[in-house]
Task: structure prediction
Amino acid sequence: MRNLLKNIAALAFVLLLGLYLAEWLLGFYLVRAVPRYPLPPFAVQRHATVDYDVAYRYNNHGLRGPDFHPGEAYDAVLFGDSFFFGQGVAEGKTITDNMRGKGLKVLNVSEIATNPSDYFHKLNVMKSQGLRSRTVVIGLCMGNDFQDIADKDIGPALAHQYRTPFLAYDVRSFLTLARLRYQLGRKTRQIKDWFNYRFFGAPDRETLMVHEFEHRRKFHSDWLRFFADNRPEIMAAMTGSPARPLNREALSEPEYLEKIQLGPESLEKTTRILLAMPERLPGTRFLVVLIPGPHYVWGFRSGRYDGYVAQLKKSLSPSLEIIDLHGRTTPRMHFLHDGHWNEAGHQYLADYLVDYLK
Result:
C-alpha cells in the first residue's frame, strides 16, 4: 500500500509539473493584448506599397496614436479597421491627429484587418482597463466588415463576462493555468462544433471565440513582412501593382455582394454585435460611421446593396447614431490601388466628426 501511494504521489507530481511546464511554454506563444496582432509597445513600422511609403508609431498598448491612460476622460474613442487606423497615411495626418489638432481628447483603438467582433471585444477589454469616454465612434467598412461572420455562432461571445483588469497576467493566473485552460477550451470548442455537425446534423459553423490571449508574432519593422508572416507571395499581393488600379475592376451585383460577403445572415449578426456595444458602456454616446467601399465610391451601384444599407440603418436606430458616408466621400479621398482613405479622406472625416460632436 505504501509503494502504491508513493507511485500515485510521484505520478501526480509529474503530471502537475507537466501542466505548469506547459503553462510556462505557452507564454512564448500566447500573450494578453489589446491588438488582434500584438506589437511591442512604442514600436515603429514602415509600410510601403505602390500608393505610399509611411511609418506607423505605436503607443504603450501597441495601438497607433496617443498613449492610453486608464481613467482619463476622452472626448471620443475610435473603433475600426484600416480606414480608421490610417493605413497609408503619415503621422500627423490621420483622423485621430486631425481631431486632436482641433482640441479634442481622442483615443484610437483601430487596427488593420479587424471587424465588428474585434471592435466589440476591444471595447470590453478597454472598459476592463478603465476606459472612460463621452463618445464611441465605430467605423463600419461596408466593403469588408461583413466577412467571416455569417456562419459563426456569436451568442457565447456576446454573453461573455470579461475579467477586470483583463490584460493582467500574474502569479494567480499562472497557478490557475490560465493560458493552458484557454487553449484547451478553444480546441474543445472546435472539436465539439465539428462533432455536432458530423454526427448530429447541426449547422456547419464554428463558435466565435473570445480572445483571452492572442498569438505572438515575430516583430518586423516592415509592416508587410510582419502581417504576412514573411510570406513573399502575400507581401507581393498586398504591395499591389501599378497596372491594377481598383477603378478598372468591374464587378456585377452578385460578384460584389459575394466579394464583400454581405447577405441576410452576415447583416443580422453584424447588427447584433453593434447593438450589444452600447450595453457594455452605459451613458456613452455611440456613433456608427458607414464607410462605403472604394468600388461604390468609383461608381458601382446595386439595388440589393442599397437595400441592405437601408435595413442596417433602420435596425441600428435609435440605439446608435448613424453617419452615412455614401455619396459623401469621393475618389480623390482614396488611394487608387488599395482603396483606403488618403490624407484628404482623413481630413474630411475628422472635420465632419468634430462639427458633428460639437
